[in-house]
Amino acid sequence: MTTICIGCGCTDDRACSGGCSLMRTDPVRRVGVCSNCFRDAVRWDAGDRRISENAHARRIARCRSCLAPIVWFRTISGFIIPINAGSVDSQDTQHDAKRHIAHFATCPNRDMHRRAR
Ligand SMILES: [Zn+2]
Ligand SMILES: [Zn+2]
Ligand SMILES: [Zn+2]
Fold first, then answer.
1. What residues have a C-beta under 5 A from ligand 3, the ion?
2. Which of 41, 62, 91, 109 is 20 to 30 Å from the Cα of 69, by its Cα?
């Protein structure tokens, strides 16, 4: 399972450039603080587990075909799928099928996705 750093948005799949390790983790909310985010470790220790705007911005990627903003999430079945960034709250750490809109459903170039498979 993926843990996201609340300071910079790195994950255990995608560490900071130069490398980092998680100094704090919350296995329930799947958030943590990595070794490059000392300042966030201070607010973590004070009980603040909110994902910073920076961290959320960093996990936003672009659809390769239509360039729409997307966030990659791992579903409970283990697939990694692109979700429309507009349907993702900055505090979301897990895929939520009720709220998150899969980008496949709205991508204007979705036929390209299909052909790529
Ligand atoms: Zn970090
Ligand atoms: Zn990091
Ligand atoms: Zn797209």
1. 63, 65-66, 68, 107
2. 41
